[in-house]
Design brief:
Distance between the termini: 97 Å
Strand order of the largest sheet: 1-2
Number of strands: 2
């Protein structure tokens, strides 16, 4: 008697039907509906599941590409696509020669999407400063309530660096951005810090081309305004910190509105 039917039955036992394989893979990916998305989305869903189950924490190294491919049931190029997408979202960081890691620092949002929207929709200076006031006035108040001595010391260093950079608009801009990021970090709210970081990166990208047009008066007034914000945060004066931040951003927007980029060349650093 031929053993072919028996072999076929054994093969079927060893290899689940396609529908069953899809359900099994869906369970691995944490999907309850049995639906599995293809390509890079599988990798993203798998890694997200590990993070949500606390099997991966900040600073942890992800399994090697080969191991991820085996665990998820996809090819290594698909794993690489998924990891690249996660990196663009700020969910992982690649370290050359070491592997891929969950970021250990404070949360950060990728700026590419916002930068693309700015290019598509021509974000105006007024819109940028409106958004900054909505975010940063509240952040300053929280910073006054929540800042640690380390936060306050970092802000003091940035204020000192602003006054030391009055003759160099580009360097002044860097410390300006760092101060505002520091205020957001001092709020000790990681969501606020991440959003302010993203908006600050876009502001820097837009402002660095025109920073040299700022007058000596504008730079000195801005440095004084940052000192007032710092002093209010150091004194744990939440209302004062909010007022100082709001006034600073209103004045900064007004000063930039008066700049005439076509009437004179950018100011060179001295």
């Amino acid at each position: 008697m031929s053993s072919a039917p028996q072999n076929a039955r054994n093969t079927q036992k060893r290899k689940p039907a396609p529908a069953a394989r899809r359900v099994l893979r869906a369970r691995v990916l944490g999907r309850s509906d049995g639906v599995v998305e293809g390509g890079a989305e599988q990798v993203i869903a798998y890694v997200r599941g590990l993070i949500e189950r606390k099997e991966l924490r900040p600073g942890d190294r992800l399994p090697a590409e080969r191991d991820l491919a085996t665990q998820i049931g996809v090819s290594r190029p698909t794993v690489r696509m998924g990891l690249h997408a996660l990196a663009a979202m700020g969910g992982v960081q690649s370290r050359h020669g070491s592997g891929t890691y969950i970021p250990a620092g404070p949360p950060a949002l990728g700026t590419e999407a916002l930068s693309l929207l700015a290019a598509l929709h021509d974000f105006t200076r007024e819109q940028m400063y409106d958004a900054r006031r909505i975010l940063e006035v509240g952040a300053a108040g929280l910073a006054a309530e929540c800042a640690t001595p380390d936060h306050i010391a970092s802000l003091a260093e940035e204020v000192a660096s602003l006054f030391a950079s009055l003759d160099d608009p580009q360097r002044f801009l860097v410390h300006d951005i760092n101060f505002h990021r520091g205020v957001a970090a001092a709020s000790r709210n990681p969501i606020i810090a991440a959003v302010v970081e993203m908006v600050s990166a876009l502001y820097y990208e837009q402002r660095r081309a025109t920073a040299g047009q700022a007058s000596d008066r504008d730079l000195r007034d801005a440095a004084e305004a940052h000192r007032e914000i710092y002093q209010a945060i150091r004194a744990h004066d939440a209302g004062g910190a909010r007022r100082a931040m709001n006034e600073h951003l209103l004045r900064a927007s007004a000063y930039q509105a008066q700049e005439l980029p076509k009437s004179r060349p950018p100011r060179a650093a001295r």
